Amino acid sequence: MNRRQLLALSAALPLAAAYGRLYAVPSAPGKLLVVFLRGGYDATNFLIPVASEFYYEARPNIAIRRPGSAPNAALALDANWALHPSLRETIYPMFLQGQVAFVPFCGTDDLTRSHFETQDSLELGQPLEGSRDFQSGFLNRLTDVLRGRQPIAFTEQLPLILRGDKDVPNMALRSLGKPGIDSRQSAIIAGMYQRTALASPVKQGFGLRDEVMHAMEPEMEAANRGAITAKGFELEARRIATLMAEKFDIGFVDVGGWDTHVGEGGATGYLAGRLDELGRGLCAIAREMGARWPETVLVVISEFGRTFRENGNRGTDHGHGSVYWVMGGAIKGGRIAGDQVDLTPATLFQNRDYPVLNDYRAVFAGLFARMYSLNSTQLSQVFPKASAKEIGLL
Amino acid sequence: MIGRANVSSAAPALRASSGLLLVALAVLPLVGCETTSSRQIQPAERSPLGRQSLQWLERVTWGANTASAGELLDLGEERFLERQLYPGAAPSTFQVAALDVGQRPLDRLVMELEQQRKEADAMTDDEQKKAAQQAYQQALTRVANEAASRSLLRDLYSPNQLQEQLTWFWFNHFNVFLYKGNLRAMVGDFEEHAIRPHALGRFRDLLISTMRHPAMLRYLDNEQNAVGHINENYARELMELHTLGVNGGYAQRDVQELARVLTGLGINASDKTPNVRPQLKAQYVRDGLFEFNPNRHDYGDKELLGQRIRGRGLAEIDEVAQLLARHPSTAQFVSRKLAVYFVADDPPKPLVERMAATFQGSDGDIAATLRTMFRSPEFAASLGGKFKDPVHYVVSAVRFAYDGKPILNALPMINWLNRLGEPLYGRPTPDGYPLTQTAWASAGQMTARFEVAKLIGNSSAGLFKPSGPDAVEQPAFPQMASALYYETVAQTLDPSTRQALDVARSPQEWNIFLLASPEFMYR
Question: What ipTM was assigned to the predicted interfaces of this complex?
């Protein structure tokens, strides 16, 4: 039985059975990591609609060449779509191995085209109509519904997506140093907060600090021996994987720098560099998760896509529909999933952007339903007034 | 507390030193000014500051210290507030003589740095080129650090405490990011000339001065925005973040129209003047680095928010600034944001309404709007309830720990703010840093804050080590067990905080626990 057959079989079986024996883990893919590309990444130059003549007309300076037509051309995925060449050694092989799927025309109905507004509404995951509760993000609600799963944000601030009734710890992993507050002092400080509203974050903060230091000991030792360490997002990603593999079940991290209004480049250049770094990081997560990778679902999201046509500065402006990625060791990948449409001037949204054909709440709900066997009541707690859309990712 | 002898004896030792040092030297007379009142009346002769007044002071200033407490006792809240709302011009002693940021006009500074960059890029020897490019980057960073130092020293020691808080607030409102392009050379000037002079003035003037500043035009890509090559970035943020607010009643079409109005507004950092068509030549404007280039402007008529804007050049900018500044949504949006910063994370609606009414009735008078806020019962009821963002935390800690002993180097503070995630000029996105507790009081952030409390409480941490090769570090120690502490602060502490202070094993640890206490986290 080769890997693909195994994956196909395991998808048909209750996953707990297939992987329970192989990896001795409790259940179906239960680990979820959401990676948010803040700034609205140019999905059109990431997953390239190579079958569209219109794409090449609309982007005279920044389009990525058709597969096989140039040394740095797009990497063919199927007849309609190809991948940015900067992902040749990272995401592309994973796609061929069936560990990555892409969902184009995905996003929210929020039409403000504002980064902040759209990020907020996406993270809250609440219906757009009616008043919003800024203390209730959808990953927090998911954690609440699931019970017993450990959430964490790998960010300096606690992001909206994880704010809510359930207390969630956070810690940025970019740079780690030895703590100066010792354990006696920590206990005394925590004592001062015991009867305040901050009691829980203070206690959690000290606890998480100790756990992270413990989990990072092998890395620190390796660094002390002079081993070459990864840099930037790749280093951060490895640390995330270590913690996700050991302890946490629902994680979140964000990556900035995608707001490419000016000079975004094509096969090479600014966006290519950002995608390269991202691809390396996500690949490192798959690798470092090791035996836990088949239990893991990693979703890459962004607040919106960008204008289909390039602007006057060889860049792109704020758009609408985006492309989400779904990765994992046991997903049904190697495909472009969800509803799609041919890209012509007539099919663009407001003659400008990708339309949203796959509502992100419906897609996530479909995913969560499969991952956690949630019933419709539970799903509606996570995404009120949304119905799950099954696009066959698991 | 802040003895005159203390200040003047430190002064001679400072004189021979470098840039940052001179800044500190320059603020000394100010500290003198601020303490005049407290010297006239000895603390023993009057009753100490009460709890409510302490909290009031914590809100109106960057943090209570002996001098400001003395001034409040002398003047009373009413007169103290009027002085803060209508401060005198920054005293002439307040000079930053040795700093690049203050010494040369922005256009000269930027052109010199540009020259340095070009020379570095033109080098043929790889090693030399690398070194020259590095030197250029270091020069940029030095300018930005000097700007941040100047800003922090003013937060610490300026008598115009409210103006300095608003300078931070408005910079954050009209945020630009130091690591875009060569913005490190410009952020200091943006703060100094576009923001500070208007921080308590008329909103429209503040808005226009940001619209004409090269830092803004570069940060939001408007220098790229030209007729036939529209870039909407600035137009969108101008309405969403600077004036109307996202639900303020504009549509995508308004964004596009405003972008057309803004065409031609840009930067010229060369000594050349572009060729302008003869019939438009008279319209060309250059003011320092700011340039209005008629060749790049869309002279067609526009329609913004239902109003026709006749296409006629730079005058359109003033027209739309007026239109945006007078829009009722702007009054609401700006008033609410001020109330979030100064009153509560979710400020009472009636208060915001009254502030917005003042704002509109006074044609955007910021000081008048603030007076409505500070004198409201909602403000009084809110005291002690705002969680300090990292800048408030660090500045108030240093004000309290070195009460009356001016620091000689602000770089450690810059490092602490980096660590706490709120460096000056360091927010990459145009929305500015968030102003509410939920954004700063997460588990990871609390842990980081305690680490910084340790650094501040343990030792002078480099604050008294002037930069420069021959500089000698001055002896100093955080002195928080002051008269202000015993007379006032101690009365406000919860028993569990006092318990922690009681078990401290050293003065250092006592400092750390006080700085880490829940009470010190709020203003």
Answer: 0.88
